[in-house]
Amino acid sequence: MDAFSKAVLNFSMDLFKEMQKTEQNKNMFCSPLSIFIALKMLMSGAGGNTKSQIEKVLHASEEGSSSKSSKQCEEAQQSSIEELLSIQTGKNDKLSIANGAFIKQLFPLEEKFLQILKKCYRAEVNSVDFKTNPEAERQKINEWVESKTERKIRELFAQGSVNNSSVLVLVNAVYFKGTWANKFDEKNTKEGTFHMNKTETKKVQMMSKSGKFKYADLPEIKSKALMMPYESGISMIIVLPNEIDGLKVMKNATADLIINWLEKQKLTETEVDLTMPKFTMEAGYDLIPMLKSMGMNDVFKENADLSGISKTKGLYVSSVVHKSAIQVNEEGTEAAAATGVGISVTSLPMREKFNVDHPFIIFLIKNKLILFQGVIVSP
Q: Would you say residue 350 has pLDDT above 90?
């Protein structure tokens, strides 16, 4: 696993555990990659302790070995992001990642930061009138997000979240639409029972198919995992706890554990009878409380060091918002997410049964890089 993917994975595991604290017994879905890139853009303009805290939360300092200078590490990170922004997918699949920067007219942005946004993040840079018409500009930013996510993410920034004290808004949007390499047959989709917990159930449309899948028992977290590929080479990994109320075991999941599954061939090709629900889900989060709990504090204070963005005094981050959506059916998966940062002043054993009829975890990955992750408690 390359260093950039590992940093995103470490960050995603930390974020996953923070979300579980506040979203317990709820559906949960986000793009750790979208949040990571948005915060990396912010980190490019931070200094001192403010930068150190962001770097620690993003595990960015772990992206390079100790023998590399910080400059070499940063160059390696930017190279990974640039490569990611160049991803091409197949004719039936689409993965797009877009960055945007919306800057208050005449605001004295540092030229170096502006060039980093344009060169390293391929950000679309827009000059906007936050001073006299913030509401209209908020709507324009939301329209930009909608256009980059095939209308799946709407109203990323709520009314009032952009005002006449706003000077810069950084946005990352990720969109994925994938067709299963081996589609489900709609004729096999039938009503089934999904156990939301030990006492509550609901009727859902359950898809089913049999075939060879990469599969693993995960005794470390009392679960099992199945990998389902899309035509593009992106895959969905489903982690299904052995018990109906087994989601709590994910507290023991670490980045190293997931790397072990992916790199040491823990997932082996197996004959499987798969049953899983169709589902559609949307989620939205104010990330500031979670990021503070993870160790990012100074950037939200008025003495934040954002001198790499502008020499203007009193700059701080006033909002970090994230929205995501996913739809899974017989054909494949459609998922989207956007993050906004507002700144204001191989063996074949016997056939396995994989019946996804109780709360489960999903990861959408490409080349071991986590694009999306979620928990489905009620499909």
A: no
Count CB atoms within 10 A of the CB of residue 119.
Answer: 11
Order of all β-strands in the sheet with 166-179: 124-128, 94-104, 166-179, 332-344, 316-328, 279-286
Would you say residue 348 has pLDDT above 50?
A: no
Confidence band of 90 (pLDDT split at 50, 70, 90): low
Predicted confidence (pLDDT) at residue 91 exceeds the cutoff of 60? yes
Outline where DSSP puts E strands in 25-85.
28-30
366 and 233 Cβ atoms separated by less than 8 Å:
yes
Describe the crossing of helices 3-22 and 32-43 by its angle, rounded to 10 degrees: 110
Residue of 24, 33, 26, 16 lying closest to 376 (CA atoms): 26
DSSP label at residue 122 = -
Nearest to 78 by CA among 32, 52, 33, 44: 44
Q: Smallest Cα–Cα separation from 331: which of 205, 212, 181?
A: 181
Judged against a pLDDT cut of 50, whether residue 64 lies above it is answered with no
307 with 47: CB under 8 angstroms? yes
DSSP letter at 123 equals P
Residue 254 is predicted with a pLDDT of 75
- Is the pLDDT at 63 greater than 70? The verdict is no
**Contacts of 192 by beta carbon, 8 Å cutoff, 6+ apart:** 203, 204, 205, 206, 275, 277, 357
Q: Which residues contact 107 (CB under 8 A, 6 or more apart)?
A: 167, 168, 310, 312
pTM for this prediction: 0.90
